[in-house]
Write a structure and sequence with these properties.
With about 150 residues, the protein is mainly α. It is built from 6 helices and 2 strands. It has a two-stranded antiparallel sheet. A hairpin with a 7-residue loop joins β1 and β2. α1 crosses α5. The longest helix is centred in the first third of the chain and has 30 residues. The chain is globular, with a radius of gyration of 18 Å. The relative contact order is 0.10. The mean pLDDT is about 90.
């Protein structure tokens, strides 16, 4: 495979991710007044139950500082709350409020429907499974690589 082929794949992958994110985000905002940037952490909070900011940041591959600010916004909207962590006083445990759980339930259905429209309807089950496996393989390989640094001259 040539560099130009890899460049084309990169371009298609990044543009598709941007287009997909925008479409899903727009639908969640219109139907639930919930941006995708808040929806994803809420899904993780719901799934993990004993959830810390660190856990969400790690799951979404973003910084703890950025995630902490995002959790602040989710909390100020009344969709989650922090409690002191009895096992580690330096961190808090985050849980969805009843309002946050109800909103997440509605938003999950919208999210699933939009993904079906944009992914499920475009690919066969087998192609979608292969696509998912390929993405998982690429993400794992990428995690093992260290960043390339420039040596001082």
């Amino acid at each position: 495979m040539t560099g130009s082929d890899l460049s084309r794949h990169f371009d298609n992958l990044v543009r598709f991710e941007t287009e997909l994110w925008t479409a899903v985000d727009q639908r969640l905002r219109i139907e639930h007044d919930l941006p995708l940037s808040r929806f994803e952490p809420m899904q993780i909070i719901d799934r993990l139950r004993s959830c810390r900011v660190f856990d969400i940041a790690e799951a979404l591959a973003i910084t703890v500082g950025g995630m902490s600010k995002l959790v602040d916004r989710i909390e100020s909207s009344g969709h989650c709350r922090r409690q002191s962590n009895p096992a580690d006083k330096r961190s808090s445990l985050i849980e969805l409020t009843p309002e946050g759980s109800a909103l997440l339930g509605l938003a999950n259905a919208t999210f699933d429907d939009e993904l079906e429209r944009r992914l499920g309807s475009a690919l066969t089950h087998e192609a979608l499974s292969q696509f998912g496996a390929t993405l998982a393989t690429l993400r794992e390989a990428n995690r093992r690589l260290t960043p390339v640094s420039k040596e001082k001259s």
